[in-house]
Amino acid sequence: MARYTGPKAKISRKFGEPVMGANKTLQKKNYAPGQHGRGRRSKKSEYALQLQEKQKVKYTYGMLEKQFARFFHLASVKEGQTGENLIKLCEARLDNLVYRLGIAPSRRAARQLVSHKHVVVDGEIANIPSMLIKPGQVVGVREKSKALDTIVESLSLNAAKKYSWLEWDSAEMNGKFINYPDRELIPENFNDQAVVELYNK
């Protein structure tokens, strides 16, 4: 399965934001990577800024270009604003929901749990991280995997309580995707409109 496997800290430093999860390196080196990272002050063009926003979304949700283009197409044919639809669809990805529910400490870890068949959707094993979950569906931990240290430690943080569009059942170790979240509730810092403008060029 295609995914970015390079250094996370480098990408976060490139954007000046923890797009691939919290990282101590970003706090120590809050400037762009590379030999001339400290001295870069060049003004970016409109296209460069739009491209940067697209890359932020791609890296945050762990998608490569082909898959991202498919999501953008799905967003553009849905009712409503394309940019908002795109982010809502990204939020409905199985690996993202596993992360939001607190089953995994990061989206990368969530992707691995899904790929290794530790996650179930409506009681059935699901091993496709990019699978789109529909409102009303239940995402949980496979019975045999409920004692895994990684999952137990992650769930101790009760991450699901942070999000109003998720409903967590600690006894069953599963959570319901209630509905697509409103854009303002999604904490990531994206300029959705810039992504739309880039694709409409």
Written account of the structure:
The chain is α+β, with helices and mostly antiparallel strands and 201 residues long. The protein folds into two domains: 8-89 and 189-199, Ribosomal protein S4/S9, N-terminal domain (Ribosomal Protein S4 Delta 41, Chain A, domain 1); 93-179, Roll (Structural Genomics Hypothetical 15.5 Kd Protein In mrcA-pckA Intergenic Region, Chain A). Helix content is 41%, strand content 8%. It has helices at residues 8-15, 24-28, 46-61, 65-77, 82-91, 94-100, 107-115, 149-155, 192-199, and strands spanning 119-121, 124-125, 138-141, 166-169, 174-177. The longest helix is centred in the first third of the chain and has 16 residues, at 46-61.
What's this model, at a glance?
This protein is an alpha+beta fold and 201 residues long. It has helices spanning 8-15, 24-28, 46-61, 65-77, 82-91, 94-100, 107-115, 149-155, 192-199, and strands spanning 119-121, 124-125, 138-141, 166-169, 174-177.
Structural descriptors:
9 helices; Structural Genomics Hypothetical 15.5 Kd Protein In mrcA-pckA Intergenic Region, Chain A; single chain; Ribosomal Protein S4 Delta 41, Chain A, domain 1; globular
Tell me the CATH architecture of the largest domain.
Orthogonal Bundle
Please state the average pLDDT score: 85
According to CATH, the fold-level topology of the largest domain is: Ribosomal Protein S4 Delta 41, Chain A, domain 1
- How large is the count of helical segments? 9
- Which CATH class of the largest domain? Mainly Alpha
Radius of gyration (CA) equals: 18 Å
Care to count the β-strands? 5
Strand order of the largest sheet: 2-1-3-5-4
Gross morphology is globular
What is the SS-derived class? Answer: alpha+beta
The total domain count is: 2
Share of β-strand residues: 5-15%
Could you list the spans in which at least 5 consecutive residues all have pLDDT below 50? none
The largest sheet is: 5 strands, antiparallel
What portion of residues is helical? 40-55%
C-alpha end-to-end distance = 30 Å
Q: Give me the CATH superfamily of the largest domain.
A: Ribosomal protein S4/S9, N-terminal domain
Order of helices and strands: HHHHHHHEEEHEEH
